[in-house]
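dumping this here before i forget
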Amino acid sequence: MNVRDTALRSPADARTPEPEPTPEPAPAPAPTPAVRQADGMAVASFVFGLIGLLAMNLLLGPASIVLAALALRRGTSRPGRARLGLALGVADLAVLAWVVSADQTWSWSIG
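structure:
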């Protein structure tokens, strides 16, 4: 472009060029199968721990603790749920110990 072309431009042409549109952000990558499996373990740990407070705490308490530990080790995207499952599993065993010491038996019933 020479000096003459610059002088012939109108003021509207002298504006700065429009900025290029920003590209759309890439969608979040899909979770890998290992993370999805760890998420399932975290949820199962929570459910087992919750049910274990009411029934079968001898089986569901340790299962909840193991599943929570595995989910945390595998890098679950739900660490809060895994930690809650871990706490509920420990609570299951504490309830079992309390019932056994109070009743002097490994079985208990409400009522």
